[in-house]
Design goal:
With 487 residues, the protein is mainly α. It has three domains: 2-167, Alpha-Beta Complex (Aminoglycoside 3'-phosphotransferase, Chain: A, domain 2), CATH 3.90.1200; 199-344, Acyl-CoA dehydrogenase/oxidase, N-terminal domain (Butyryl-Coa Dehydrogenase, subunit A, domain 1, Orthogonal Bundle); 347-487, Butyryl-CoA Dehydrogenase, subunit A, domain 3 (Up-down Bundle), CATH 1.20.140.10. It has 20 helices and eight strands. Strands 1-4 form a two-stranded antiparallel ribbon. A two-stranded antiparallel ribbon has the order 2-3. It has a two-stranded antiparallel sheet with strand order 5-6. α6 (115-138) packs antiparallel against α7 (151-167), α16 runs antiparallel to α17 (380-414) and α17 (380-414) runs antiparallel to α18. The longest helix is centred in the last third of the chain and has 35 residues, at 380-414. Its cofactor is FAD.
């Protein structure tokens, strides 16, 4: 113990005296002291503040990471190895990934240089606490009763664990992990458990990167974008331009980079995603109003690029298409956008954008807003509507993926029937979901404080832009009659 104390005194981080890490310290921050929301995946309270003080907040961070280092249980005679050694349960972040989440959220520097100190100090605190518990057990007044018998041995083992941790050469990578571990099911498990629409590895990687970047960085700027559209309608929005560059750099990181000089004409147009592969990415981009523009997958540019690529001559492509592509690829040798195809999967984009509106906005509002003395989510009619909309939404999603698959395999002409079905089903489904979400929000649903009114107008516009339902229904009916005549 004294050896550990001497090392800690000599190794106090320089940042400790600068105030860079100063703030409110809980002192016993762990999952046992958290109160979780009964319906949502979030914390609503933190208990046990008697040890709180002002100090270095990394102490709380390190203390909450103890389960990675060591496993201590009062009913066990000895401490055991932590999750770093025994293996992480499915869905649990590694310690570097956990620290990346914290540092990214609070803008803290990567703690690799001083991490040994913070972990050793946390183990020292735990050993000191266990020593006190053991002494109280010897005097017969330990609150843990006979379970405290083992704390004396465990205190010594915690000190040894701290000294062993100090002796390790590397405890954290020098730089934060560039890609967080995918906590979703593996590709193999998807193949075993899913139906015919299973993304390949490349698409899974792109999709996970979109989830990681779009959900945080793009969502955070959505309110500013809406405001900018009111005050500077015809001006470039600085946050969109900056985030677009950062997002493309992030996404391009998973590609195999090479020198941009001497690229073939075909290489200029990206990785060559099929419509089905692109559809999985539209699901994620649809969660943000402006993500399609950031990734150069939004109207009207996509439609213009498709028309020029398919029908333009070389002079027209050089004059009009190349600037559109170069404008979005910035400095990346291989830009992130699909190889242009003759059909946009706009319905999938809109359907899943509305899925986000339903799950995020409508669901959370229903759990917080009360009518007639109870939460909206507790009304039987709401639960029934929610279930029906989920069933319809999942069916529409599969229909659009089927349309994309037919388009890839059979071309425009043979896929026109199912394309027409998707163009009828998706906008109508989106409007139905949004209408319910707006109703749950009340007056707030139709004002500019939420994105629901904008999404409703966008989905309604899609029923015009993609052609009226009557045209598509006519196509579907004629094809059905032709099919029947051949029987």
């Amino acid at each position: 113990m004294f050896e550990l104390v001497d090392w800690l005194r000599k190794s106090i981080p320089a940042e400790d005296s600068t105030g860079a890490t100063s703030g409110l310290v809980h002192g016993d921050f762990r999952i046992d002291n958290l109160v979780f929301h009964p319906y949502e995946d979030r914390v609503i309270g933190i208990l046990d503040w008697e040890l709180s003080t002002l100090g270095n907040q990394m102490c709380d961070v390190a203390y909450s990471c103890m389960h990675y280092i060591v496993n201590v249980q009062l009913d066990k005679e000895h401490v055991s190895e932590g999750l770093e050694t025994t293996g992480l349960p499915e869905g649990i972040l590694s310690m570097p990934e956990f620290l990346l989440e914290y540092c990214s959220a609070l803008g803290k520097p990567w703690p690799a240089e001083n991490w040994k100190f913070y972990v050793a100090f946390s183990l020292f605190r735990a050993a000191s606490i266990y020593t006190g518990v053991y002494n109280r057990w010897l005097m017969g007044n330990a609150s843990a009763g006979e379970r405290a018998r083992n704390t004396g041995v465990q205190a010594n083992e915690l000190v040894e664990c701290a000294l062993g941790y100090i002796a390790r050469e590397n405890v954290l990578p020098a730089h934060p992990p560039s890609v967080k571990r995918d906590v979703s099911p593996s590709y193999e498990s998807l193949v075993d458990a899913s139906g015919r629409f299973v993304p390949n590895r490349k698409v899974l990687e792109l999709r996970q990167r979109l989830i990681q970047r779009s959900s945080i960085k793009l969502k955070s700027g959505q309110v500013e974008l809406i405001h900018s559209l009111r005050v500077c309608l015809w001006s470039s929005w600085f946050l969109q331009v900056d985030s677009a560059a950062r997002a493309r750099r992030e996404l391009a990181a998973i590609e195999n980079k090479h020198d941009s000089s001497g690229r073939s004409f075909d290489q200029l147009f990206g990785e060559g995603l099929t419509n089905l592969e692109y559809g999985y990415l539209c699901e994620i981009m649809g969660r943000s109003v402006w993500a399609p523009q950031v990734f150069n997958c939004g109207a009207p540019d996509t439609g213009n690029m498709e028309v020029i690529l398919r029908y333009g001559n070389k002079e027209q492509i050089s004059e009009w298409l190349i600037p559109l592509l170069e404008g979005i690829q910035v400095t990346e040798p291989r830009p992130f956008y699909r190889k242009i195809r003759p059909w946009k999967i706009a319905p999938l984009h809109e359907t899943n954008r509305c899925s986000r509106a339903w799950n995020g906005a409508n669901g959370s509002k229903a759990l917080s807003r009360k009518t007639f003395g109870m939460f909206i989510a507790q009304h039987g009619s709401f639960v029934s509507d929610l279930a029906k909309l989920r069933v319809e939404l999942e069916g529409t999603r599969l229909l659009v993926l089927e349309a994309a698959d037919h388009l890839d395999k059979f071309g425009n002409k043979k896929a026109r029937g199912i394309l027409a079905m998707a163009k009828v089903a998706a906008p109508n489904m989106a409007l139905k979901v949004l209408d319910t979400a707006i109703q749950v929000h009340g007056a707030a649903g139709v004002c500019s404080d939420t994105v629901l009114a904008h999404l409703w107008a966008t989905a309604r516009t899609l029923r015009i832009a993609d052609g009226p339902d009557e045209v598509h229904l006519g196509t579907i009916g004629k094809l059905e009659l032709q099919r029947a005549s051949k029987l």
